[in-house]
């Protein structure tokens, strides 16, 4: 069940966001329940040395327990230049070359801007980063990101925080078929464990989500539910889901069966 | 009086001001933030020899949770 991202072998295919939890303790417990080994974090401008009520410390504590890895993001960036600067700042603050590259092109959908995204990815790869590009499910954009030097892709399932699940399974199936061997991580739009399981059954390698756990009635139990759904979906994919049929196909053999009536 | 800005907030500028000095004026520990000047990253090791000019924008960034 293990898989590898930029040379790092992970036993969990669940990448978890750390924003919006009710308390640092709930965050810590949710991470533990999820089994996630990759946790996303962000950056913000701040004038005062303001505390964050211990949330970042909770993330670092959780990572120490799991032996996991931080994945800083460039959330809020609208241009390649902005994202490149923020990525460098993230590398210094978090001491990792991993960067979740987000360059948003539309305020309403928070849809990634493919041109700025590819431009930023090209530069960041040259600067020694290991780029996790948050992208749409467009095949050609994804190819350009691979050409830029990204070793994996993070196509959306639906707009960030919308919880709508996989709006375009066909596109994700197409990515899987056309980009065999490239790690695919569905990022954004997942709302329920069944959505995550569906992605995994399509052959997606991992799932990254945040709001679906943080905004659940019980984030800790939901984290566990997602962990199980992701593992089950992967197992189902590896086991080989049966082919669909339009019409019924009897599961009980009828040949040679005694007829009791008639 | 000449000014520069820190995260868009105006600050008085002085001759010889560097990124490191401006950060100290803000009372921030050097390791607690990352810095950029006019949108360009300034690595920690370069702060002491990076001058701040009147009208410059100094950006200070700190870690937070994120998705």
Tell me what the structure shows:
The complex is a heterodimer of chains A (262) and B (67). Chain A has 262 residues and is of the alpha/beta class. Helices cover 40% and strands 16% of the residues of chain A. Chain A contains 9 helices and 10 strands. Chain A has helices at residues 24-34, 55-66, 80-94, 114-126, 139-147, 169-178, 193-201, 211-214, 219-239; strands at 3-5, 8-10, 14-17, 38-45, 69-72, 98-101, 130-135, 154-155, 185-187, 206-209. In chain A, the strands form 3 sheets. Chain A has a 5-stranded parallel beta sheet. Chain A has a 3-stranded parallel beta sheet with strand order 6-7-8. A two-stranded antiparallel sheet of chain A has the order 1-2. In chain A, helix 4 runs parallel beside helix 5 (139-147). The radius of gyration of chain A is 20 Å and the shape is globular. Chain B has 1 helix and 5 strands, in the order ββαβββ. Helices cover 10% and strands 36% of the residues of chain B. The radius of gyration of chain B is 12 Å and the shape is globular. In chain B, a hairpin with a 2-residue loop joins strand 1 (3-6) and strand 2 (9-12). Chain B has one helix at 19-25, and strands at 3-6, 9-12, 34-37, 40-42, 57-65. Chain B has a 5-stranded mixed beta sheet, with no helix packed on it. By secondary structure, chain B is mostly beta strands. In chain B, 34% of the residues are buried. Classes of the chains: A alpha/beta (262), B mainly beta (67). Chain A binds chain B through residues 17-21, 27, 40-47, 49-50, 52, 55-56, 59, 72-73, 75, 81-82, 85-86, 88-90, 92-94, 160-161, 210-211, and chain B through 6-7, 9, 26-29, 32-36, 39-41, 43-44, 59-67.
């Amino acid at each position: 069940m293990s898989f590898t991202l930029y040379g790092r072998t992970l036993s969990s295919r669940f990448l978890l966001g750390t924003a919006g939890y009710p308390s640092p303790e709930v965050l810590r417990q949710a991470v533990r329940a999820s089994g996630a080994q990759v946790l996303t974090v962000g950056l913000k401008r701040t004038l005062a040395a303001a505390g964050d009520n211990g949330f970042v410390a909770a993330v670092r504590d959780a990572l120490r327990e799991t032996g996991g890895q931080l994945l800083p993001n460039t959330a809020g960036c609208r241009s390649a230049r902005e994202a490149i600067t923020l990525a460098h700042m993230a590398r210094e603050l978090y001491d990792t070359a991993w960067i979740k590259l987000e360059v948003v092109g539309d305020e309403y959908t928070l849809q990634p801007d493919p041109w700025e995204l590819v431009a930023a990815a090209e530069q960041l790869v040259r600067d020694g980063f290991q780029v996790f590009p948050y992208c749409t499910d467009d095949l050609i954009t994804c190819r350009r990101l691979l050409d830029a030097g990204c070793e994996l892709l993070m196509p959306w399932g639906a707009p960030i925080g919308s919880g709508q699940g996989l709006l375009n399974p066909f596109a994700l199936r197409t990515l899987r078929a056309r980009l065999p061997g490239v790690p695919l991580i569905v990022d954004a739009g997942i709302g329920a464990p069944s959505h995550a399981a569906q992605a995994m059954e399509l052959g997606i390698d991992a799932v990254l989500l945040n709001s679906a756990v943080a905004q659940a009635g019980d984030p800790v139990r939901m984290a566990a539910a997602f962990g199980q759904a992701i593992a089950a979906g992967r197992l189902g994919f590896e086991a080989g889901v049966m082919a669909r049929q339009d019409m019924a196909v009897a599961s009980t053999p009828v040949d040679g069966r005694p007829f009791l009536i008639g | 009086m000449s000014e520069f800005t820190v995260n868009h907030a105006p600050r008085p500028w002085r001759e010889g001001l560097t990124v490191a000095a401006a950060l100290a004026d803000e009372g921030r520990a050097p390791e607690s933030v990352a810095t950029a000047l006019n949108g360009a990253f300034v690595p920690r090791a370069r702060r002491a020899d990076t001058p701040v000019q009147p009208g410059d924008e100094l950006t200070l960034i700190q870690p937070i949770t994120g998705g």
